[in-house]
Amino acid sequence: MSTGSATLECLPNGEIPLKSAFGDLIPHGIPLIIVPGNDTEARYMTECCEPNEVNLVIDCYMWCKIPDRYIKDGESPAFNTDMQQCILDNGYPVNDTSNLQTRSAKDEE
């Protein structure tokens, strides 16, 4: 199975590749968010991902497991805007979260 790392590269303008391009570089089967950038100490990541760790892939994409507090009963995190709002409220440098990606555990079934 390919990890996708051979084709994964940093895209311009804060774009994020399709989730499938990350291959095994990010975990499968958990709800997570992918954000362009490499400052894993950025407040918008540390505050909103807490208590989970902020991780870095190829020096241009950050990801973390979506904390349980953002996942409502029966709701897919892909449609939950609470975490995206947290990221905006904590200083995300772009006033648009359309380039953020979420992945739910169900996305991979």
Verbal overview:
- With 109 residues, the protein is of the alpha+beta class.
- It has one domain.
- The protein has a four-stranded antiparallel beta sheet, with no helix packed on it.
- Strand 2 and strand 3 form a beta hairpin.
- Helix 1 packs antiparallel against helix 2.
What's the number of extended β-strand segments?
Answer: 4
Q: In whole angstroms, how far apart are the ends?
A: 17 Å
User: What general outline do the C-alpha atoms trace?
Assistant: globular
| β-strand amount | 5-15%
Assign the structural class, choosing from mainly alpha, mainly beta, alpha/beta, alpha+beta, or little secondary structure: alpha+beta
Low-pLDDT stretches: 1-6
How many helical elements?
A: 2
Write down the secondary-structure element order: EHEEHE
Tell me the strand order in the biggest sheet.
2-3-1-4
Mean pLDDT level: 80
- Number of domain modules: 1
Question: What's the helical proportion of residues?
Answer: 10-25%
Question: Which terms would index this structure?
Answer:
four-stranded antiparallel beta sheet; about 15% helix; about 110 residues; disordered N terminus; alpha+beta
